[in-house]
């Protein structure tokens, strides 16, 4: 692909003027340490893929020892299901016909993930989850109504989830409906393309971008541009659909680090350099069953104009050189480890338009000593007379009627826009202050999606769990709510506690960044019988002093979690037992 640069108007970047939030500014030092440089044979830097007939294919000489998913990609290009209309023919087949041949079976179980469709063979045979692309988590009332109309027809099998990447996933979809659903998505400005498997996932940004009085930069234009580039404006972009593994990206626009940069493969951290606005770069953050790592500095700075060329260069480096054997060792950090950060950096630099990268800036714009703000509830926007209202969506699960009602509220009280967050909540922006009282009195906010949930509920996150996901070992969403309710009866807490649930070691629920994390596993009860359980993690932190949590207690039966969590909250988080409270009154 040809080199290019994209121009942005330079954003105005100013220190916060809010007297109630004044904090000392801290300049980040230029990184002085990085993984040791390693000796890399020149042959190792030969690209392992080549372009054939518009698609990138793994070269024959690099196919020894590749994993089964790579073989499936070689046998049939997944993007042809979309770009050459293969989905229309596939949707005409019955499930029995599909399962009769390996190619079509692989189509529905693997290749359709390139179209954002995940067959729930284990728990919902013949039904699919559909994951969208929603850059920066911004959506409209019209889009929300359309998604509601899709899931409503599937009755009890249809529902929607807000994900930990500011995204929608809808459930219950059947294959014959897919071509029509894809057309409907296009009509409302949505796509599900390239949202699963070895593709770039939803670009994450500040959920209150453009309305945040304290923001450093509006992340929406950058997230939109990256998403449009990656999918070629929803037409499909084969240049980045044959990555060795999935790949996450975020643009940081706030001191609060709502975007969780340290767990992304590529994170843009705002920084100025010689009077120019741009970003320092972090690379390599990821979670997997066998290894979890925080992103590390690339020792690189790019101007706002070069956000897209840098993204392209990092992706091409990963695509060209990444390992394609054991799937547990194919995320980008494994490549960085193998090459060493300086060789990896040089490979990125040679793929930049000017064949070079500037070193990192010392003028980091993110304040290190910053108290993370709560976006739930009512908050003034930078636009005079307007506020945004953050709503708690319990474990991110919605039904069709919920979505229709949220769309109505966005139209009636706001500007027809909704914002999704990585904590699985939803924000209604642009509400006139004169309409706030009426909005807060709406039944949906009183009965379902409170702007003022309890302290423990507001920090609760849960993955899909085994209700729908075939990889999950335990049920998560209902159990997370039940255990939290039990804990609230046992103890009282005075500060926010983030509790995350994930059904399996793939850790979609991001338990390692939680104060308390629960990872599904099998355990044994008091009678030594196997039961659903959880490994408990403790000590995860987000923000500028981020830290991944560590295993605290293994294989606790789920039925025993309530009292144990209550003990943890008392011992580590200053909670007070309810019976003690009552006894002191």
Shape: globular
Fraction in helix: 25-40%
Radius of gyration, in Å, reads 24 Å
End-to-end gap? 72 Å
Beta-strand content estimate: 15-25%
Query: What is the CATH superfamily label of the domain at 458-577?
Result: Sulfite Reductase Hemoprotein, domain 1
Strand line-up of the largest beta sheet: 3-4-7-6-17
SS elements, strand count: 26
Number of H- or I-type helical stretches: 18
Assign the CATH architecture of the domain at 458-577.
2-Layer Sandwich
CATH fold-level label of the domain at 458-577: Sulfite Reductase Hemoprotein, domain 1
Low-confidence stretches: 1-34, 581-585
CATH class of the domain at 458-577: Alpha Beta
Class by alpha and beta content: alpha+beta
Largest sheet: 5 strands, antiparallel
Can you give the mean pLDDT? 91
Description:
With 585 residues, this protein is an alpha+beta fold. It has a domain at 458-577: Sulfite Reductase Hemoprotein, domain 1. It is 27% helix and 21% strand. The strands form 7 sheets. A 5-stranded antiparallel β-sheet has the order 3-4-7-6-17. A hairpin with a 2-residue loop joins β1 and β2. α6 (141-152) runs antiparallel to α12 (400-413). The longest helix has 15 residues, at 307-321. The model is unreliable at 1-34 and 581-585 (pLDDT under 50).
């Amino acid at each position: 692909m040809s080199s290019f640069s994209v121009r942005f108007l330079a954003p105005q970047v100013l220190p916060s003027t809010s007297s109630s939030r004044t904090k000392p500014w801290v300049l980040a030092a230029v990184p002085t340490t990085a993984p040791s440089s390693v000796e890399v044979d020149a042959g190792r830097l030969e690209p392992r893929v080549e372009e054939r007939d518009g698609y990138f294919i793994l070269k024959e000489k690099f196919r020894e020892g590749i994993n089964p998913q790579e073989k499936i990609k070689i046998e049939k290009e997944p993007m042809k299901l979309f770009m050459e209309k293969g989905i229309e023919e596939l949707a005409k087949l019955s499930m029995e016909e599909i399962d009769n041949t390996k190619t079509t079976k692989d189509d529905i179980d693997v290749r359709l993930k390139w179209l954002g469709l995940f067959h729930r063979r284990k728990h919902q045979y013949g039904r699919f989850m559909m994951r969208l692309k929603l850059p920066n988590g911004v959506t409209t009332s019209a889009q929300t109504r359309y998604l509601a109309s899709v899931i409503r027809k599937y009755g009890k099998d249809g529902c929607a989830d807000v994900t930990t990447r500011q995204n929608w996933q809808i459930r219950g979809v059947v294959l014959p409906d897919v071509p029509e659903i894809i057309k409907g998505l296009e009509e409302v400005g949505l796509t599900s393309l390239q949202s699963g498997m070895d593709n770039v996932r939803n670009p994450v940004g500040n959920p209150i971008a453009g309305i945040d009085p304290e923001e450093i930069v509006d992340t929406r234009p950058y997230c939109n541009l990256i998403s449009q580039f990656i999918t070629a404006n929803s037409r499909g972009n084969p240049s980045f659909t044959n990555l060795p593994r999935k790949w996450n990206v975020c643009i940081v626009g706030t001191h609060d680090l709502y975007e969780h940069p340290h767990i992304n493969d590529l994170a843009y951290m705002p920084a100025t350099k010689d009077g120019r606005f741009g970003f320092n770069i972090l690379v390599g953050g990821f979670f997997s069953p066998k290894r979890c790592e925080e992103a590390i500095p690339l020792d690189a700075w790019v101007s706002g104009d070069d956000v897209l060329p840098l993204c392209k260069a990092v992706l091409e480096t990963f695509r060209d050189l990444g390992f394609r054997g054991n799937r547990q060792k194919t995320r980008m950090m494994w490549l960085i480890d193998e090459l060493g950060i300086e060789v990896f950096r040089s490979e990125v630099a040679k793929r930049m338009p000017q064949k070079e990268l500037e070193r990192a800036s010392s003028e980091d714009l993110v304040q290190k000593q910053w108290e993370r703000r709560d976006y739930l509830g009512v908050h003034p926007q930078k636009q005079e007379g307007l506020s945004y209202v953050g709503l708690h969506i319990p474990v991110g699960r919605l039904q069709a009627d919920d979505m229709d009602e949220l769309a109505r509220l966005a139209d009636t009280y706001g500007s027809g826009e909704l914002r999704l967050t990585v904590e699985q909540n939803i924000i209604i922006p642009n509400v006139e202050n004169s309409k706030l009282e009426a909005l807060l009195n709406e039944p949906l906010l009183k009965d379902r999606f409170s702007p003022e949930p309890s302290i423990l509920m507001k920090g609760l996150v849960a993955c899909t769990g085994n209700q729908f996901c075939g990889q999950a070992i335990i049920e998560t969403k209902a159990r997370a709510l039940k255990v939290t309710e039990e804990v609230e009866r046992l103890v009282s807490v005075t500060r926010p506690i983030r509790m995350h649930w994930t059904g399996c070691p793939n850790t979609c629920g991001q338990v390692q960044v939680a104060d308390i994390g629960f990872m599904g596993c099998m355990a044994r009860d008091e009678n030594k019988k196997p039961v659903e359980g959880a490994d408990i993690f403790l000590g995860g932190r987000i923000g500028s002093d981020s830290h991944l949590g560590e295993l605290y207690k293994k294989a606790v039966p789920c039925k025993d979690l309530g009292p144990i969590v209550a003990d943890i909250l008392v011992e580590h988080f200053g909670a007070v037992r309810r019976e003690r409270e009552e006894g002191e009154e």
